[in-house]
Known about the structure:
- By secondary structure, this protein is α+β, with helices and mostly antiparallel strands.
- It has two domains: about 1-75; about 90-220, protein yfey like fold, CATH 2.60.460.10.
- It contains six helices and eleven strands.
- It is globular, with a radius of gyration of 47 Å.
Amino acid sequence: MNATRTSKLLMVLGGSFCVALLTAGCSLGTTDSTDSTTTLPTVTTSKAASSQATDDAQPSSTTAAIQTAAERYGTETSTTLPPLLTNDDSITTAGLGPVRIGQLVEEAQSEAGVELIAASTGSEACRYYTPAAGATGASFMVVNGEVVRVDISSGPITTKSGYGIGSTKDAIKTAFGSKIQESADGDYVMYVPVSDGDKNMRVIWELDAEGTVTSLRTGRVPHVTPKIGCAGG
Length: 233
């Protein structure tokens, strides 16, 4: 009987011990689970990445500040470009730089890269135009919409050979020889081309009493020969 009671007592104690162990095991598992949910590095990292992605998707204020108008509004901004026609261009029998005798005034303006301003005097049949910038002292005589003559009344522009205002009659005659004709009054000298392609073109230098050039012009006969262009306009 004592052995039987002892066995039963051991069974009861063993069962209680197992229950205690199981209870303790469940408590540890819950604690681990609770701890794992209080620290969420993956969630925190995900939020940071999301925030960074949002920031990357939108331009910063610095980037926005340096955007061009074309980028912001999708249109080109107007800019002022330097004229193509400049004081570095030369007078030839063909014209002045990119502006050529025979061009329509609209074409001449496009080639010059600068506005050609119509004089208040003259008429549609004959009127002078001056560039708004780029070529000092230059003006263009336009007859029925066509450039027929270029005048240089001041400034540094010269012929391709370098003869302009301030040059002398003797220097011009020496340079061009028989191609130069002098007026009976000695008030101008005129370059007369010998090639068939230029036979109707002239370059004329007006002279003062000392034989110094005061102005020059190039153009087509008969428009180039009068000292004052558009005289009848």
